[in-house]
Amino acid sequence: MPKEIDVLVLGGAGVDTIVHVPELPLPYADSYMIDQGIRTRAGQTGDFVALGLTALGLRTHHLDFLGDDPEGDLVRALHDQHGIALTAVPQPLGTKRAVNLVGPDGRRLSLYDTSRAHPADRFPEDTLRLLAGASRHAHVSLTQPCADALPVLRETGVTLSTDLHDWDGENPYHASFAYAADIVFLSAAALTDPEATMRRIADRGRARIVVATAGAAGARLLADGELTHVPAAVPPAPVVDSNGAGDAFAAAFLYGRLGGEPPLRCAEFGAKAGAYACTIPATESAAATRDALH
């Protein structure tokens, strides 16, 4: 039977408050004047992956917990605006939120509010199985309760990807995602030996493809045991913010993969989409299109 959904995105829905600061790290001071304003907008990792996939023409469905609050309304409005299907499980503790400090060079520091979830939170299993069964692929965010969804997803037979972000290679919470996914994305920022970590993921888990991104230094691609360096793409405009670049990379890579492209071509798509994302101000929501990639 044909699948109704190209990619099911689990978790990572929320809002960010963006603060442009004069430098990072930010030296202590009693106060700072923020000339560019302090703005709250919808969009965390799952939202941005879903946005990137949709901009590339993939049928995308996002599943996560949302509160009945103004922040949840912002997330719902973002999905409505871009035509992204959303299944929102009620979260009495409220919608996830974070504060992003963005430096002049586009680097960011994120402060996550971890009070918007409960350890006992679980996706309704019937809903999870129904959506996974209708999907060609599922991309799983690190946010709780996605870890508990991994065994159910594997039972449905859907292929999985995940983004470990700045994993240090040791944290066991991230490891459960790393070893369950067929495609693993991560940042090399906190890794002393990225290649060793990538090969460990492939050796101990299911992944046939592991990608470690390194910003302007490009990315490492491990596919079927072969390691390749993927150069960074030239941004089409001045770099203003790196927020969402990794999510854009993952979305474009999955677009290529689901279209039958070889891993290197998928990584080149990811590099282009990531570079484009760095030219978009953090207060805006936009993603690379098919025309931009091709």
Automatic annotation (TrEMBL):
The keyword Flavoprotein does not apply. GO terms for molecular function: kinase activity. Transmembrane segments: none annotated. Residues 49-284 form the Carbohydrate kinase PfkB domain. Keywords: Kinase, Transferase. SUPFAM superfamilies: Ribokinase-like. The keyword Protein biosynthesis does not apply. InterPro entries: Carboh/pur_kinase_PfkB_CS (IPR002173), PfkB_dom (IPR011611), Ribokinase-like (IPR029056). PANTHER family: RIBOKINASE, SUGAR KINASE. This is Adenosine kinase. It comes from Streptomyces antibioticus.
